[in-house]
Amino acid sequence: MNQYAIAVHGGAGTILRSTMTPEKEEAYRKGLSDAIAAGEAVLKKNGHSLVAVEKAIRVLEDNPLFNAGRGSVFTNKGKNEMDASIMEGRSLMAGAVTGVRNIKNPISLAKAVMEKSEHVFLSGEGAMKFAELMKAEREPDEYFVVAERLEQLKKAKEADKTMLDHIGTVGCVALDVHGNLAAGTSTGGMTNKKFGRVGDTPMIGAGTYANNATCAVSCTGHGEYFIRAVVAHDVSCLMEYKGLPLSEACKIVVQDKLVKMGGEGGLIALDAHGNIELAFNSDGMYRASKKQGGEIFIGIYRD
């Protein structure tokens, strides 16, 4: 039996102590802690890493502080369009959805695509039709209305640009006692996004990747760069083809490759030995991790 391990993130970007109230910081820490607890509850009972990832991300999707599920940002048309993906390291099976609306937990819909369809990636109307067939839990528009998100949309429209929401994308990676890795990511995307823009979150290999032979990765940041650098898969490739340890692979991708491209953000990664990396090149990243028998770690800022 392996030792289990789990890590979650709640977005990366310009996260500064100077702009954070003690109350808000505590709320973020509790949100991350609750997600770890939900995932660990599965792992403690010798459950599968895939289920642990789904449970942890559902907690973050239900928390309006994070840009996923209930707290998703608004598009240019004032709608919430959500993306999610999930992948299992044992079989390399994966599921993803993009541009879904009114779905309470997009990560569960992505998992249904993986387990109950012959496809990997569903979008827009088709994904919504599939959600109907799966009886996915839905919520009315009002459920997704968070005052802070509306204010962000107003500012983005005034500036006439899309804005990367730094209170962002959520994700989880987990290793279960059976030695299986899994990864998942969920997001509301960019504030004021237009033309059906899709980021890295639902793209297997860009925002999410898991392979028992190497690692599980979930990314957060400026999606356009993460897509072009195929970040999640690149970490795995450096381990598989160059024999690099997880820490070195993450460092090369996040601190060198992305920085040279101008890509801001980070990732959480976990290998088959239970090594955890919480790597980012921005001012901060909401992150938490826990190994079997160890204490929970929660971090927000760079230092």
Side by side, the strands of the main sheet go 4-3-2-6-5-1-11-12
CATH architecture field: 4-Layer Sandwich
Parts with pLDDT < 50 across at least 5 consecutive residues? none
Number of helix segments? Answer: 8
Helix content: 25-40%
SSE-based structural type = alpha+beta
Mean pLDDT: 95
The domain tally reads 1
What is the CATH domain class? Alpha Beta
Estimated share of beta-strand residues: 15-25%
Cα(first) to Cα(last) distance is: 35 Å
In CATH terms, the superfamily is: (Glycosyl)asparaginase
- Quick one: biggest sheet? 8 strands, mixed
Counted beta strands: 12
Shape: globular
Under CATH, the topology can be stated as Glutamine Phosphoribosylpyrophosphate, subunit 1, domain 1
Overall description:
The chain is an alpha+beta fold and 303 residues long. It has one domain (5-298): Glutamine Phosphoribosylpyrophosphate, subunit 1, domain 1 (4-Layer Sandwich), CATH 3.60.20.30. It is built from eight helices and twelve strands. The strands form two sheets. Strands 4-3-2-6-5-1-11-12 form an eight-stranded mixed beta sheet. Strand 3 (94-100), helix 3 (106-116) and strand 4 (121-123) form a beta-alpha-beta unit. Helix 1 packs antiparallel against helix 2. The protein is globular and about 50 Å long.
